[in-house]
Amino acid sequence: MERRALVDKLLELTELHAGEIAERWYKSVSTNPRTPSYRSLPKEKPVLRATSLYKNLKQMYFSDNPYQEVLQFLEGRGYVESLQADGIPLHEAIYALVMMRRHIWLYAELQALFTTPMDMYQATEGINRTLLLFDYAAYIIAQKYQKPNRSTV
Predict the structure, then answer these.
(1) Tens digit of pLDDT per residue, the chain (153 long)?
(2) Which runs of consecutive H residues, i.e. helices, occur in the chain?
(3) Whole-number Å distance between alpha carbons of 47 and 27
């Protein structure tokens, strides 16, 4: 039960502060040399996408079928299509997703969410499942980026 409480705490923090975490993420992604395409975008678009992902993370996390939940989230919001319309190359989209994932932990650390080594140990379950959700998202994004290429070949 203690592990569940820590996971809930992390996901609630992420949901409640989604906008702030997304803003911090955008500041990083728009200045990172691995994601130069983000520099030319109006800030609102990527921040809105990141905020939406952060706000929906808890639902994806606790889903009985997390892969399907991530797929529905990405498809339902036209996530990949919006990245493509913004001219974001696949490698940058994936790296930006990695940075999104990292900013959850950076924000939790900033808020001193996990204050003891035992907290960190107990949070491992949450970390592993969250990594899985972002891995699913990366897979789905890569797969959807390839679809237009198949039809033109």
Answers:
(1) 455 677 788 899 999 999 999 999 999 999 999 999 999 999 999 999 999 999 999 999 999 999 999 999 999 989 999 999 999 999 999 999 999 999 998 898 888 777 777 776 666 667 788 888 999 999 999 999 987 654 443
(2) 2-16, 18-29, 44-61, 66-76, 79-85, 90-110, 117-122, 124-152
(3) 10
CATH number 1.10.490.10 is the correct assignment for the domain at 2-152: yes
pTM: predicted TM-score of the whole model, two decimal places? 0.85
Alpha-carbon span 53 to 103, nearest angstrom: 12
- Cα–Cα distance for residue pair 105/87, rounded to 1 Å: 28
Q: Are 66 and 136 in contact (CB under 8 A)?
A: yes
